[in-house]
Structure formats: structure tokens, C-alpha cells
């Protein structure tokens, strides 16, 4: 007679319990993962709503939506960034700082988060910090529009009256993307304000000859041409502005230029 022990009969019950436990754990994990996805989707939706309410000026409702988003996904850099912007609008800069620090702790290399924080720093007069953040974003390989970061750095520097540095950043943006109208507009505006009329006119004419016009550039062209005493050139810019951008604020502004030259 065999002396081997019947191990199947001995372990069948504990084995079934172990398998059942594993199944239950798997189901719990699936349920938890589904709930986490639902929470993240809800947080994203409420963040979008909160941002839209901010743009409409309804800060109370924006805060309600962003508070809800924070509860749904406290580890979202987008939620913290949106809340930072909200607190800035509410004049609570300490809370805005804290929210931006949270966002950057979660996503230290996210270029959009860095860009938002840089805008915030510049708006608070922290120019060097803001410009550094913009340049960090521009040098980040994940950031697909470095020309925007360089232009924003220029705007920040221009506000601080650091005009040569501002111009260098606008130039850098245009080197990267020659058809970036905002950089051309900012550079030509800076040149116009510094009474560098030939340079401003060259910038405007060169851009419009090679790329799509914008209402801002055409209106600036009117102002520069008038300052140069070039009546024909000013009329050409004005006709194009009225034709291609009728009904815009820039087209309507033509009527006030005679009363407010320059």
C-alpha cells in the first residue's frame, strides 16, 4: 500500500479560500481603478467649468467648482494651477503662491504649469523670477511653442522697462517662428514707443509681406505711418484693416486716431 499522503484532499479548502481572496482583491482593485478614473474625469470637468466661470467674472461659482475638483483629484497640477489663478484674481496672493507650489511639486517639469506660474510672477512685479520660469519653459523639450515663452518673457521685461532685453526675446521668438504675429506686434510696438519709427515700419512691412495680417499689426501700421508723415501708407493700412477685419475693436479704433494721434 502506498505511504504517500493525499495532499489534494489536505489542502483543497485553504487553496479555495486563497483563490477566493485573490479574486476579491482583484475585484476591489478594478473597482478602485474605475472610481479613480471617474474622479479624475469629474475633476477635469469641474476645472474647465471653474476656469470658464473665472473668465466670466463669477469668482464665487468658479471657487465652488474648483473646490469640488480639488476634492475629486487633489493630486492634479491643473486643479492647483487653476485655483492659484483664482486666488490671484481674489487678491489672495499667499494662497495663490501655495497653490502654484503644490502644482509645481506635482508636475515640476510641466511647461504649461511653469508658464502659468511665470505669468503670475510677472504680474506681481517679480520680473527676474518670472523671466527665468519663461525661459525654463522655452528650453523644455516638452514645450511645443517656445516662441510663446520667449514672447511672454519679452512682455514681462517690457513691463519692467527693461526694453533691450525685451527686444532680444521678441527677436528670439521670431527666429524660431517667423510667422508668429504676436512677437512681431510686440517688437514693433516697443520700437514705436521708443520712437524707432523706421525699425517699427520695417518690422510691420516685412511681416505683412510674408505672413498673414492681424488687426493689431494693421492698426499699429496706421499709427507708425502717420507718425512718419506717410499719409498714403497710413491709408493703405487702414483700408486693409477695414476690409479684412471689419467690426473688430481695432477697426473701430480708427475713428479715434485723428483725435488721439500716436
List keywords for this structure.
mainly alpha, 262 residues, 79% helix, 0% strand, single chain, Serine Threonine Protein Phosphatase 5, Tetratricopeptide repeat, 13 helices
Could you walk me through the main structural features you see in this protein, from its secondary elements to its overall organization?
This protein has 262 residues and is mainly alpha-helical. It contains 13 helices and no strands. It folds into three domains: 69 residues, Serine Threonine Protein Phosphatase 5, Tetratricopeptide repeat; 69 residues, Tetratricopeptide repeat domain (Serine Threonine Protein Phosphatase 5, Tetratricopeptide repeat, Alpha Horseshoe), CATH 1.25.40; 81 residues, Serine Threonine Protein Phosphatase 5, Tetratricopeptide repeat (Alpha Horseshoe), CATH 1.25.40. It is elongated. The protein starts with 6 loop residues before the first helix and ends in a 5-residue tail after the last helix.
CATH class of the largest domain: Mainly Alpha
The proportion of residues in beta strands is under 5%
The CATH homologous superfamily of the largest domain is named: Tetratricopeptide repeat domain
Number of strands: 0
- The Cα radius of gyration reads 29 Å
The ordered H/E elements are: HHHHHHHHHHHHH
Report helical residue fraction.
over 70%
In the CATH hierarchy, what is the architecture of the largest domain at level 2? Alpha Horseshoe
Low-confidence stretches: 1-11
Query: What composes the largest sheet?
Result: none
CATH topology annotation of the largest domain:
Serine Threonine Protein Phosphatase 5, Tetratricopeptide repeat
What is the distance, rounded to the nearest whole angstrom, between the alpha carbons of the first and last residues?
Answer: 113 Å
